[in-house]
Amino acid sequence: MPAESTPETLVYARDLEKRYGDKAAVRGIDLDIAAGEAFGFLGSNGAGKSTTMRMIGCVSIPTSGQLTVLGLDPQHDGVAIRSRLGVVPQQDTLDSMLTVHENLEIYARYFGISGKLAKRKASELLTFVKLSDRSKDKVDELSGGMKRRLAIARGLVNDPEMIILDEPTTGLDPQARHMVWERLFQLKQRGVSILLTTHYMDEAEQLCDRLVVMDNGKIIAQGSPSELITEHVTKEVVELRFNGAHTTELADLAEKLADLDGQIEALPDRILIYTNHASGTVAEVRDRGLEPSSAYERRATLEDVYLRLTGRTLAEA
Ligand SMILES: Nc1ncnc2c1ncn2[C@@H]1O[C@H](COP(=O)(O)OP(=O)(O)OP(=O)(O)O)[C@@H](O)[C@H]1O
Protein backbone atom coordinates (compact mmCIF):
# COMPACT_ATOMS: atom_id res chain seq x y z
CA MET A 1 0.00 0.00 0.00
CA PRO A 2 1.53 3.37 -0.91
CA ALA A 3 2.26 5.69 2.01
CA GLU A 4 -0.29 8.21 0.72
CA SER A 5 -3.15 5.68 0.80
CA THR A 6 -4.82 5.47 4.25
CA PRO A 7 -7.60 3.11 5.43
CA GLU A 8 -10.03 5.96 4.73
CA THR A 9 -8.87 6.16 1.12
CA LEU A 10 -11.22 4.22 -1.12
CA VAL A 11 -9.43 4.94 -4.34
CA TYR A 12 -5.93 6.27 -4.73
CA ALA A 13 -4.44 6.84 -8.17
CA ARG A 14 -1.30 8.53 -9.41
CA ASP A 15 -0.48 9.07 -13.06
CA LEU A 16 -2.93 6.31 -13.96
CA GLU A 17 -2.96 5.49 -17.63
CA LYS A 18 -4.83 3.07 -19.88
CA ARG A 19 -3.91 2.57 -23.51
CA TYR A 20 -5.59 0.47 -26.15
CA GLY A 21 -2.82 0.05 -28.71
CA ASP A 22 -1.95 3.58 -29.87
CA LYS A 23 -5.07 5.03 -28.27
CA ALA A 24 -4.69 6.51 -24.78
CA ALA A 25 -8.15 6.26 -23.17
CA VAL A 26 -6.97 7.57 -19.78
CA ARG A 27 -3.91 9.80 -19.77
CA GLY A 28 -2.20 10.08 -16.41
CA ILE A 29 -4.89 10.91 -13.85
CA ASP A 30 -4.62 11.32 -10.05
CA LEU A 31 -7.50 10.44 -7.72
CA ASP A 32 -8.04 10.59 -3.95
CA ILE A 33 -11.51 9.34 -3.10
CA ALA A 34 -12.41 9.04 0.57
CA ALA A 35 -14.72 6.55 2.27
CA GLY A 36 -18.31 7.77 2.54
CA GLU A 37 -18.08 10.09 -0.43
CA ALA A 38 -20.39 10.26 -3.40
CA PHE A 39 -17.85 10.91 -6.13
CA GLY A 40 -18.67 11.68 -9.74
CA PHE A 41 -16.89 11.40 -13.08
CA LEU A 42 -18.37 13.93 -15.46
CA GLY A 43 -17.58 14.24 -19.13
CA SER A 44 -18.61 13.75 -22.73
CA ASN A 45 -18.62 10.52 -24.75
CA GLY A 46 -15.16 9.05 -24.95
CA ALA A 47 -13.72 11.22 -22.14
CA GLY A 48 -12.38 8.12 -20.35
CA LYS A 49 -14.93 7.79 -17.54
CA SER A 50 -15.93 4.17 -18.12
CA THR A 51 -12.33 3.12 -18.65
CA THR A 52 -11.42 4.66 -15.28
CA MET A 53 -14.36 2.93 -13.59
CA ARG A 54 -13.37 -0.39 -15.18
CA MET A 55 -9.87 -0.07 -13.74
CA ILE A 56 -11.29 0.78 -10.30
CA GLY A 57 -13.72 -2.15 -10.63
CA CYS A 58 -10.75 -4.46 -11.35
CA VAL A 59 -12.02 -5.54 -14.77
CA SER A 60 -9.39 -3.65 -16.75
CA ILE A 61 -5.67 -3.60 -15.97
CA PRO A 62 -3.96 -0.19 -15.97
CA THR A 63 -1.21 0.25 -18.56
CA SER A 64 0.86 2.29 -16.11
CA GLY A 65 0.67 4.37 -12.94
CA GLN A 66 -0.39 3.57 -9.39
CA LEU A 67 -3.84 2.42 -8.32
CA THR A 68 -5.16 1.13 -5.02
CA VAL A 69 -8.82 0.37 -4.33
CA LEU A 70 -9.93 -0.12 -0.70
CA GLY A 71 -6.23 -0.02 0.11
CA LEU A 72 -5.50 -3.06 -2.09
CA ASP A 73 -3.76 -3.55 -5.42
CA PRO A 74 -6.27 -4.49 -8.16
CA GLN A 75 -3.67 -6.52 -10.04
CA HIS A 76 -3.01 -8.85 -7.10
CA ASP A 77 -6.13 -8.54 -4.97
CA GLY A 78 -8.82 -8.22 -7.63
CA VAL A 79 -11.00 -10.98 -6.16
CA ALA A 80 -10.83 -9.54 -2.64
CA ILE A 81 -11.63 -6.04 -3.92
CA ARG A 82 -14.52 -7.21 -6.09
CA SER A 83 -16.07 -9.02 -3.13
CA ARG A 84 -16.34 -5.64 -1.38
CA LEU A 85 -17.61 -3.67 -4.39
CA GLY A 86 -21.01 -3.38 -6.01
CA VAL A 87 -20.99 -2.75 -9.75
CA VAL A 88 -23.88 -1.42 -11.81
CA PRO A 89 -22.71 -1.43 -15.43
CA GLN A 90 -23.89 0.91 -18.18
CA GLN A 91 -25.40 -1.91 -20.24
CA ASP A 92 -28.33 -3.88 -18.90
CA THR A 93 -26.87 -7.27 -17.90
CA LEU A 94 -29.92 -8.60 -16.08
CA ASP A 95 -31.02 -12.12 -17.00
CA SER A 96 -34.25 -11.76 -18.96
CA MET A 97 -35.05 -15.47 -18.61
CA LEU A 98 -35.36 -15.12 -14.84
CA THR A 99 -37.84 -13.36 -12.60
CA VAL A 100 -36.96 -10.18 -10.75
CA HIS A 101 -36.48 -12.11 -7.49
CA GLU A 102 -34.44 -14.89 -9.14
CA ASN A 103 -32.07 -12.33 -10.66
CA LEU A 104 -31.02 -11.30 -7.18
CA GLU A 105 -31.13 -14.74 -5.63
CA ILE A 106 -28.94 -16.31 -8.30
CA TYR A 107 -26.52 -13.39 -8.37
CA ALA A 108 -26.11 -13.79 -4.60
CA ARG A 109 -24.68 -17.28 -5.19
CA TYR A 110 -21.64 -15.73 -6.90
CA PHE A 111 -20.82 -14.32 -3.50
CA GLY A 112 -21.42 -17.62 -1.70
CA ILE A 113 -24.83 -16.58 -0.39
CA SER A 114 -27.51 -19.23 -0.98
CA GLY A 115 -30.65 -20.82 0.43
CA LYS A 116 -32.80 -18.91 2.89
CA LEU A 117 -30.28 -16.12 3.31
CA ALA A 118 -30.23 -15.41 -0.45
CA LYS A 119 -34.04 -15.37 -0.55
CA ARG A 120 -34.22 -13.02 2.43
CA LYS A 121 -31.57 -10.74 0.99
CA ALA A 122 -33.35 -10.62 -2.39
CA SER A 123 -36.63 -9.69 -0.68
CA GLU A 124 -34.97 -6.99 1.44
CA LEU A 125 -33.27 -5.48 -1.58
CA LEU A 126 -36.48 -5.50 -3.60
CA THR A 127 -38.14 -3.61 -0.76
CA PHE A 128 -35.25 -1.15 -0.78
CA VAL A 129 -35.56 -0.45 -4.52
CA LYS A 130 -39.38 -0.49 -4.31
CA LEU A 131 -39.90 -3.47 -6.56
CA SER A 132 -41.41 -5.95 -4.10
CA ASP A 133 -44.69 -6.00 -5.98
CA ARG A 134 -42.87 -7.04 -9.19
CA SER A 135 -40.78 -9.83 -7.68
CA LYS A 136 -42.44 -12.64 -9.66
CA ASP A 137 -42.44 -10.78 -12.98
CA LYS A 138 -39.96 -11.56 -15.73
CA VAL A 139 -37.33 -8.85 -16.17
CA ASP A 140 -38.60 -8.04 -19.68
CA GLU A 141 -41.90 -6.91 -18.18
CA LEU A 142 -40.19 -4.08 -16.26
CA SER A 143 -39.85 -0.48 -17.43
CA GLY A 144 -36.38 0.97 -18.05
CA GLY A 145 -36.38 2.72 -14.67
CA MET A 146 -37.41 -0.46 -12.86
CA LYS A 147 -34.66 -2.43 -14.59
CA ARG A 148 -32.15 0.17 -13.46
CA ARG A 149 -33.38 -0.10 -9.88
CA LEU A 150 -33.13 -3.88 -10.08
CA ALA A 151 -29.57 -3.55 -11.39
CA ILE A 152 -28.79 -1.34 -8.37
CA ALA A 153 -30.33 -3.95 -6.04
CA ARG A 154 -28.16 -6.60 -7.69
CA GLY A 155 -25.09 -4.45 -7.13
CA LEU A 156 -25.93 -4.42 -3.40
CA VAL A 157 -26.27 -8.19 -2.95
CA ASN A 158 -22.85 -8.52 -1.30
CA ASP A 159 -23.35 -5.54 1.06
CA PRO A 160 -20.60 -3.55 -0.70
CA GLU A 161 -18.62 -0.77 0.94
CA MET A 162 -18.62 1.07 -2.36
CA ILE A 163 -20.99 0.92 -5.30
CA ILE A 164 -19.82 1.86 -8.80
CA LEU A 165 -22.50 3.05 -11.20
CA ASP A 166 -21.80 3.76 -14.86
CA GLU A 167 -24.38 6.32 -16.06
CA PRO A 168 -27.14 5.17 -13.70
CA THR A 169 -29.90 7.27 -15.23
CA THR A 170 -29.03 7.56 -18.92
CA GLY A 171 -32.16 7.08 -21.03
CA LEU A 172 -34.59 7.33 -18.12
CA ASP A 173 -37.49 9.77 -17.94
CA PRO A 174 -37.39 12.47 -15.21
CA GLN A 175 -39.61 10.57 -12.79
CA ALA A 176 -37.56 7.37 -13.13
CA ARG A 177 -34.35 9.36 -12.69
CA HIS A 178 -35.67 10.85 -9.45
CA MET A 179 -36.52 7.38 -8.15
CA VAL A 180 -32.94 6.25 -8.82
CA TRP A 181 -31.51 9.40 -7.20
CA GLU A 182 -33.67 8.89 -4.14
CA ARG A 183 -32.37 5.31 -3.71
CA LEU A 184 -28.80 6.54 -4.10
CA PHE A 185 -29.38 9.22 -1.43
CA GLN A 186 -30.63 6.47 0.88
CA LEU A 187 -27.56 4.36 0.21
CA LYS A 188 -25.32 7.28 0.99
CA GLN A 189 -27.13 7.80 4.28
CA ARG A 190 -26.43 4.16 5.09
CA GLY A 191 -22.72 4.88 4.69
CA VAL A 192 -22.16 3.25 1.30
CA SER A 193 -19.61 5.12 -0.79
CA ILE A 194 -20.79 5.91 -4.29
CA LEU A 195 -18.81 6.32 -7.49
CA LEU A 196 -20.73 7.27 -10.58
CA THR A 197 -20.21 8.49 -14.11
CA THR A 198 -22.68 10.81 -15.72
CA HIS A 199 -23.31 13.10 -18.67
CA TYR A 200 -25.91 14.94 -16.66
CA MET A 201 -24.84 18.08 -14.83
CA ASP A 202 -27.96 18.14 -12.67
CA GLU A 203 -27.26 14.57 -11.61
CA ALA A 204 -23.71 15.48 -10.63
CA GLU A 205 -24.94 18.54 -8.72
CA GLN A 206 -27.64 16.56 -6.95
CA LEU A 207 -25.65 13.50 -5.96
CA CYS A 208 -21.95 14.21 -5.82
CA ASP A 209 -19.98 15.55 -2.87
CA ARG A 210 -17.01 15.89 -5.17
CA LEU A 211 -16.37 15.23 -8.79
CA VAL A 212 -13.81 15.32 -11.54
CA VAL A 213 -14.49 16.69 -14.99
CA MET A 214 -12.79 14.50 -17.61
CA ASP A 215 -12.03 15.44 -21.18
CA ASN A 216 -10.00 13.46 -23.68
CA GLY A 217 -8.60 11.08 -21.05
CA LYS A 218 -7.53 13.78 -18.60
CA ILE A 219 -8.96 15.40 -15.48
CA ILE A 220 -9.48 19.05 -16.34
CA ALA A 221 -11.09 20.16 -13.06
CA GLN A 222 -12.08 18.76 -9.69
CA GLY A 223 -13.86 19.79 -6.51
CA SER A 224 -17.33 19.98 -5.03
CA PRO A 225 -20.04 21.28 -7.38
CA SER A 226 -20.06 24.64 -5.60
CA GLU A 227 -16.24 24.89 -5.58
CA LEU A 228 -16.15 24.22 -9.31
CA ILE A 229 -18.75 26.87 -9.99
CA THR A 230 -16.98 29.43 -7.79
CA GLU A 231 -13.61 28.68 -9.31
CA HIS A 232 -14.55 28.59 -12.98
CA VAL A 233 -17.60 30.78 -13.51
CA THR A 234 -19.47 33.70 -12.03
CA LYS A 235 -22.45 33.30 -9.70
CA GLU A 236 -25.06 34.29 -12.24
CA VAL A 237 -25.74 33.92 -15.92
CA VAL A 238 -27.95 35.93 -18.25
CA GLU A 239 -29.22 33.99 -21.26
CA LEU A 240 -30.22 35.96 -24.33
CA ARG A 241 -31.99 34.64 -27.40
CA PHE A 242 -32.62 36.58 -30.60
CA ASN A 243 -35.43 35.32 -32.84
CA GLY A 244 -34.00 33.21 -35.63
CA ALA A 245 -30.41 34.31 -35.01
CA HIS A 246 -27.80 31.55 -35.21
CA THR A 247 -24.05 31.06 -34.93
CA THR A 248 -22.70 33.86 -37.17
CA GLU A 249 -25.31 36.49 -36.29
CA LEU A 250 -24.95 35.65 -32.60
CA ALA A 251 -21.17 35.97 -32.79
CA ASP A 252 -21.65 39.46 -34.35
CA LEU A 253 -24.17 40.44 -31.67
CA ALA A 254 -21.85 39.15 -28.94
CA GLU A 255 -19.11 41.47 -30.19
CA LYS A 256 -21.36 44.44 -29.51
CA LEU A 257 -21.52 43.32 -25.87
CA ALA A 258 -17.78 42.87 -25.44
CA ASP A 259 -17.43 45.90 -23.12
CA LEU A 260 -20.10 44.67 -20.67
CA ASP A 261 -19.04 43.75 -17.14
CA GLY A 262 -18.94 39.98 -17.56
CA GLN A 263 -17.72 37.23 -19.84
CA ILE A 264 -19.65 36.70 -23.06
CA GLU A 265 -20.15 33.29 -24.64
CA ALA A 266 -21.89 32.97 -28.03
CA LEU A 267 -23.47 29.51 -28.50
CA PRO A 268 -25.16 28.28 -31.70
CA ASP A 269 -28.61 29.28 -30.37
CA ARG A 270 -28.03 31.89 -27.64
CA ILE A 271 -25.64 34.27 -25.96
CA LEU A 272 -24.58 33.77 -22.34
CA ILE A 273 -23.32 36.58 -20.15
CA TYR A 274 -21.45 35.42 -17.05
CA THR A 275 -21.73 38.11 -14.40
CA ASN A 276 -21.93 38.66 -10.67
CA HIS A 277 -24.55 41.37 -11.19
CA ALA A 278 -27.26 39.87 -13.41
CA SER A 279 -29.86 42.46 -12.53
CA GLY A 280 -29.40 45.45 -14.78
CA THR A 281 -27.48 43.47 -17.40
CA VAL A 282 -30.45 43.16 -19.78
CA ALA A 283 -30.99 46.94 -19.60
CA GLU A 284 -27.32 47.42 -20.53
CA VAL A 285 -27.81 45.08 -23.49
CA ARG A 286 -30.76 47.19 -24.67
CA ASP A 287 -28.67 50.37 -24.19
CA ARG A 288 -26.39 48.99 -26.89
CA GLY A 289 -29.33 48.78 -29.31
CA LEU A 290 -29.87 45.03 -29.04
CA GLU A 291 -33.40 43.68 -28.53
CA PRO A 292 -33.38 40.05 -27.35
CA SER A 293 -36.54 38.00 -28.01
CA SER A 294 -36.03 36.37 -24.64
CA ALA A 295 -33.78 37.13 -21.70
CA TYR A 296 -33.57 35.44 -18.37
CA GLU A 297 -31.30 35.33 -15.35
CA ARG A 298 -30.31 32.13 -13.61
CA ARG A 299 -27.66 30.88 -11.21
CA ALA A 300 -24.54 29.32 -12.75
CA THR A 301 -24.45 25.50 -12.95
CA LEU A 302 -21.92 22.78 -13.68
CA GLU A 303 -23.02 22.95 -17.33
CA ASP A 304 -21.51 26.45 -17.38
CA VAL A 305 -18.32 25.14 -15.81
CA TYR A 306 -18.09 22.49 -18.53
CA LEU A 307 -18.69 25.07 -21.23
CA ARG A 308 -16.03 27.45 -19.86
CA LEU A 309 -13.51 24.61 -19.57
CA THR A 310 -14.04 22.92 -22.92
CA GLY A 311 -15.75 25.52 -25.10
CA ARG A 312 -18.55 22.99 -25.68
CA THR A 313 -21.84 22.21 -24.01
CA LEU A 314 -22.23 18.57 -23.01
CA ALA A 315 -25.08 18.26 -25.52
CA GLU A 316 -22.69 19.26 -28.31
CA ALA A 317 -19.85 17.04 -27.08
N1 LIG B 1 -11.83 -1.81 -25.40
C1 LIG B 1 -11.47 -0.72 -26.06
N2 LIG B 1 -10.68 -0.80 -27.14
C2 LIG B 1 -10.27 0.30 -27.80
N3 LIG B 1 -10.61 1.57 -27.44
C3 LIG B 1 -11.41 1.70 -26.39
C4 LIG B 1 -11.88 0.58 -25.62
N4 LIG B 1 -12.65 1.05 -24.61
C5 LIG B 1 -12.67 2.38 -24.72
N5 LIG B 1 -11.92 2.78 -25.78
C6 LIG B 1 -11.70 4.15 -26.22
O1 LIG B 1 -11.21 4.89 -25.11
C7 LIG B 1 -11.79 6.19 -25.07
C8 LIG B 1 -12.49 6.42 -23.74
O2 LIG B 1 -13.64 5.58 -23.69
P1 LIG B 1 -14.59 5.48 -22.40
O3 LIG B 1 -15.61 4.42 -22.69
O4 LIG B 1 -13.76 5.32 -21.20
O5 LIG B 1 -15.25 6.91 -22.40
P2 LIG B 1 -16.48 7.44 -21.56
O6 LIG B 1 -16.07 8.75 -20.99
O7 LIG B 1 -16.93 6.42 -20.59
O8 LIG B 1 -17.58 7.64 -22.69
P3 LIG B 1 -19.15 7.30 -22.64
O9 LIG B 1 -19.76 8.42 -21.91
O10 LIG B 1 -19.51 7.29 -24.10
O11 LIG B 1 -19.33 5.97 -21.98
C9 LIG B 1 -12.71 6.28 -26.29
O12 LIG B 1 -12.02 6.91 -27.34
C10 LIG B 1 -12.99 4.85 -26.62
O13 LIG B 1 -13.24 4.69 -28.00
From TrEMBL:
SMART domains xref list: AAA
Top-level taxon of origin: Bacteria
GO terms for MF: ATP binding; ATP hydrolysis activity
Subcellular location: Cell membrane
GO biological process: response to antibiotic
Topology within the bilayer: Peripheral membrane protein
InterPro entries membership: AAA+_ATPase, ABC_transporter-like_ATP-bd, ABC_transporter-like_CS, ABC_transporter_ATP-binding, P-loop_NTPase
Coiled coil: none
Main location, first listed in the record: membrane
Record has Nucleotidyltransferase as a keyword: no
Ranges for domain ABC transporter: 11-241
Keyword ATP-binding: yes
Pfam family, one: ABC_tran
Annotated PROSITE patterns: ABC_TRANSPORTER_1, ABC_TRANSPORTER_2
Cellular component aspect of the GO annotation: plasma membrane
Family named by the database record: Belongs to the ABC transporter superfamily.
The protein's name in its UniProt record: ABC transporter ATP-binding protein
